[in-house]
Amino acid sequence: MGSCESTAKNSEEKKSGENIEQLNMSRLSSEEEVIKKIAIGAGIVLLGWGLCKLINNGGSNNKKMMKAPGRNDSYIYRDEFESNPSEYFRRLRD
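Above: the chain's sequence. Below: its structure in token form.
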């Protein structure tokens, strides 16, 4: 192989290496864009959830809850139970 052929081969290898590097950089930038879009989407969802919580808590349904006596995984309003506990237990037996 002559010196011209060797120089041409080295030049092609450099171009090939540069192309691979450019592809890697473009792949990284596209991955970063996807990550940014996911982060923005998650932020929007969290913001919406927070606004819903604010709106719902501002309503008239701010009663305290308690675990329902005699039931598993059930909750009732505390003020309704305390106003007439015997009625609660009577309905529980029916």
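The chain has three helices and two strands.
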